[in-house]
Amino acid sequence: MKLAEGLPLEVLDLFRDEAKEHLDGLVQGLEKLAQAPDALAGAIVHELARRLHTIKGGAAGIGFEPIARVAHEAENVLISDAPVAERVRKVARATAWIDGAVRDQHEDPTAILEELRKAALSAPHPSAPPPTASAPPPASAPPANAAGRESIRVRVRTVESLVAPLAALAGERAESRFRRERLRRSAESARGLWRRANAAPLGPAELEELSALVAGLEREAAAARESARTMTRSVSAAEETLQKMRLVSVASLEEPLRLSSMDAAARTGKEVQFSLVGGGVFVDRRVLDELRGPLVHLVRNAVDHGLETAAERARLGKQGPGRLVVRVVSLGDLVEVSVEDNGRGIDAAKVGQRAVALGQLAPEAAAKLQPAELFAVLATPGFSTREQVTELSGRGTGMDVVAGAVKGLGGQVSLHTELGQGTTFQLSIPVAALSTRVLFVRLRGETLALPLSGVDGTARLGPEAFYEVGGRRFVTLGGAGVPVHELEQGQAAAAPEGKRTAVRVRAAGGPLALLVDEIVGEEEVSVRPLGPPLRHIEGVIGSTLAESGEVVLVLDPRGLGRLGAFANEDLAAAPARPARVLVVDDSITTRTLERHILERAGYQVELARDGVEALAALRANSFDLVVSDYEMPNLDGIGLVRAMRADEGLEALPLILVTSVVGEETRRRALAAGANAYVMKGQFDQDTLLAAIAEHLAGRRG
Q1: In sequence order, what are the residues at sequence separation of 6 or more whose Cβ sits closer than 8 angstroms to the Cβ of residue 233?
Q2: What is the pLDDT of residues 372-388, one digit of tens each?
Q3: Which helix (H) or strand (E) holds 438?
Q4: pLDDT by residue (tens digit) across 3-21?
Q5: Does the pLDDT of residue 572 top 70, yes or no?
Q6: Nearest CA to 139 among 699, 621, 692, 660?
Q7: Is the dihedral of CA 646, 652, 658, 661 positive or negative?
Q8: Looking at residues 27-39, what average pLDDT do you find?
C-alpha cells in the first residue's frame, strides 16, 4: 500500500498532517488511560474514539482502505468490555501500525485486524451508545486544532515574488544611512548659521548658504516621502505574498470528498452524484486543514443517513441518483461551506424520540423540539439515530466532531431540512482563523467582544429612536426598525442626555440591536474555544485576552438571537427581589460565563474561586443558593457542602454541584454529603442549570 499512488501531493500532505496530529493524541491519551481512575476513564475513551473515528473517515475518504479498517476495529476494541490494560495494549498496537502505514512503511493488515477482532469479542450491545459516550473529553486533552504543522508547501515562483519587494526595502535601508549622514551635516550647518545670526546679521554669503541648506532639506523631505511610499508598497507586496503562501484552494478538497462519497455509496449500496461548487475560493491553510475532517463526516453522513437507495427513490418518484453538493461561497472575511443533499430530510420528531431513548433529552423538551434546535441534539456526544453500529455510523461521534471543529475555528453550523426534500448543513468560518478582528464593548463594568464579521454598525441613539410593537422594543437603526436585545437582564446605565449606544449585529433570525454602555475599540485577537462544560453554550464563541490581561468572552452574534425568547420568558417570571447566587469555581472562564447566564436570567451573582473563599463569602453575606464546581483546590465541592451542612446558619442553603466527574458512586457521594442537585458538565446547558436553580429556589421560598 503506497499512499502516494494516484493522489495529488497536497491531498497527501493534508492527510498525513491530520493523521499525525491524531496519532500523537492517541499515544498521549493511551498513556493517560492506562493510569486513569475509573471515574475519568470514560472521558478519555470518548476522546480516543473520536480520534480513531476521524482517522478512519479521512483514510476511507481517499481510498486508504487498510488504514480505515484497522482504525474501525481499534474503535471496537476501545469501547469493548475488555480490561483497560488489554484495550490500551491492543489499541497501541493498532496505533503503531497506522503510523507506519501513514509513513509508507508497508505491512500486511491481516494479522493486526485478526488480533483486534479477537480482542473486541466482548464489545457492548450495539443498540446502546458506549457507556461513557456522553462524557466530555478531559480538559487536558490536546485540542483538535493543536499546533503541529511545521512546514508548508510553497511554489518557487511564489518565493521569488518576495525578491523584488525585499530588494526594494534593502535599497531603502541603505539609502536611509546616507540620508542620516546628509541630515547630520545639514544640522551642523544650521547650528553654525544660528550661532552667527545671534552674533550679527547674516551677510550675502551666509544667506546664500542658508538658501542652499533650505533647498537641500526640501529635497531630503521629498526623498523621504518617496522612500516611505516605496517602503509601504514593498511591505504591502511582501505581506500579500506571505498571506498567499498560507492560502490554499478549496478545490484541493474535491477529490478527498468525492472519494468519501464514493466509499460511503459503495458501503450502503446507493447511487450518488457528487459535485463541488466554488473550488476557486482560497482560505487559510489551517482553516482548510480543520475543515477537512468535518466535511468528510458530513459527506459520509449525507450518503448514509440522508440519501435513499435507488429503489426507495424510484418508489418516491425521485429521478436519477441521489445528489450531493458541497458549495463554497466567499463572503469577504467569511467563507460559507454547505453540504446539500436531496434525500429524505430529517424527521425532528424521530430525533426527539431517539434522544429521549438515549436519556439525552427530557420527553417534554423533545415534544417542543424545533427545526433550528436539531443540530444541537445531533451534535450531542453519544447521539446517533442508528441502533446498529456500522463502519459508517452508529457511535455518536460524527456530528460531535463537526461541532467541535467548527466552533474551534470561531465558526457556526446551521441546519436546514425538509422532509422528503433533503438537508443542508451550512458552515460559516472566518477565512483567516489564526486571528479575528473584534469590537470590544463595555456593559455594567464588564468587557465583552463581538466579531466584526457579525457587526453591521454602531450608533448613539436618543429616546425618540425607541418604540414598542406587540410588547417588544424596537429601535430605528440604519433607516430600519431593529429588535432590541439586552445582553444582561434589566437596562444598562443610561448615557448622558439619555442616549444609548447600540450595536447592530447579524443574528440567526435577523438583525438585532445590542445595547451597551460604551464602545471600547477594535482589535485583532486570537480566540480560544471554551472547554467543557461551556463549549455548547449558545451566544458565546470562546474567550480572548484583552491588552489589559483581562479574560474577555467573545460573543456569537448569530447565537444571541436564539437567546432572546428564553431571556424574555425568564425575565417575566423573575421574582420582585432578585435571588442572590454564589458561583464557586476555580476556572475563571467558567465563573465568568455562569455569571453571565445567571445575570441574564435576573439573578444577582457573586463569585468565589474555591470552597474556602466561598465559606468566607457565605458567612459575611446572605445568599439564596450556591452553584459550585466539584473539583477545586484548597476545599472542593464535597468539602464545601459538608461544611455548610455543619453550620447552623448555612445548613438549609441549597447547593448545586456542577461537575465533570463521572459515575453513580460519585453522584451518591455528593447527594449524601448534602448537595441538593448534581448537574453533569457533559449534559450541561443553560436551560438545565437554570431549571435546577429555579426548582430549588421555589422550594426554599415556598
Answers
A1: 165, 168
A2: 677 778 877 767 665 54
A3: strand 436-443
A4: 545 455 556 666 777 788 8
A5: no
A6: 660
A7: positive
A8: 81
Task: Tell which phi-psi region holds residue 320, choosing left (phi > 0), alpha (psi between -120 and 50) or beta.
Answer: left
Residues paired with residue 512 on neighbouring β-strands, in sequence order: 505
**Residue 187, phi then psi, degrees to nearest 5:** -65, -40
The architecture that CATH gives domain 574-702 is: 3-Layer(aba) Sandwich (3.40)
User: Which sign does the torsion angle of CA 495, 499, 503, 509 carry?
Assistant: positive
DSSP run (H or E) holding 172: helix 163-199
Question: Is 248:10 a contact under the CB 8 Å cutoff?
Answer: yes
Q: Which residues of 337-373 are buried (b: 16+ CB within 10 A; e: fewer)?
A: bbbbbbbbbbebeebbbbbbebebbeeebbeebeeeb
- Chain mean pLDDT for the chain: 76
Contact 53, 398 (CB under 8 A): yes
Q: CA 293 to CA 229: how far, in whole Å? A: 44
Q: How far is the C-alpha of 603 from the C-alpha of 601, rounded, in Å?
A: 6
Q: Indicate the domain borders of the chain.
A: 9-122, 157-247, 250-430, 436-572, 574-702
Cell of 302: 449525507
> At which residue does the C-alpha cell 438549609 appear?
652
For the domain made up of 250-430, the CATH class stated in words is alpha beta
CA dist., res. 151 & res. 174, Å (int):
32
Phi, psi for 563 (deg, rounded to 5): -85, -15
Cβ-count burial of 695 within 10 angstroms (0-12 exposed, 13-18 middle, 19+ buried)?
middle
Pick the CATH number of 436-572 from 3.40.50.1010, 1.10.10.410, 2.40.50.180, 3.20.20.140: 2.40.50.180
The predicted model gives 24-44 an average pLDDT of 81
pLDDT at 141 over 50: no
Q: Among candidates 401, 535, 411, which has minimal Cα distance to 133? A: 401
The CA-based angle 427-333-377, given to 5 degrees, is 20
522-549 per-position pLDDT tens digit = 877 766 656 555 555 667 777 777 766 6
Cell of 130: 458506549
Residue 90 and residue 46 in contact, taking contact as beta carbons nearer than 8 Å: no
Mean pLDDT, residues 651-664 taken together:
80
* Nearest partner of 546 among 626, 460, 428, 447, judged by Cα: 447
Q: How far apart are CA 144 and CA 130, in angstroms?
A: 21
464 burial (CB, 10 Å; 0-12 / 13-18 / 19+) is: exposed
Pick one of 1.20.120.160, 3.40.50.10680, 3.60.15.10, 3.90.650.10 as the CATH number of 9-122: 1.20.120.160
Extract the C-alpha cell encoding 590: 467558567
**598 vs 545, residue with greater confidence:** 598
